[in-house]
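A quick aside before the break. I want you to see a complete sequence-to-structure record at least once, exactly as it would be stored in a machine-readable document. Don't worry about memorizing anything.
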Amino acid sequence: MTSPPKEKAPVETNETSPSVIKFMEFVKEPMDGKPVDTLPGINRVLGSRLRRQGYGRATSLLGKFMVMDKDRYSFVRWLAEQTGASSQQALECFKCLDAWSSAFM
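That is the input. The structure line, written in tokens, reads:
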């Protein structure tokens, strides 16, 4: 009789992912004219696409988020359709705007 396979222990690391750092940095202070690509999930390419559509500042994208009544599904879908963001990128952005609005509004 064989014993069941042993589970591998999770790899522990002291490194924090860049997206987590970007999130923590963004939500700890007011937006004050920050460029849209300072939002988690929004890289330079997506930021450029958003700027061409009039969303050059994080506050502009926050406005869209608010107009959509902070609806996760609608915002994530809209952001993906407008910019070509992956669902993960769009969700990261949504989560950040949601956390920021809870902290500052």
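Two observations worth writing down. Helices lie at 18-27, 44-52, 58-67, 72-83, 87-104. The chain is about 55% helix and 0% strand. We'll return to this after the break.
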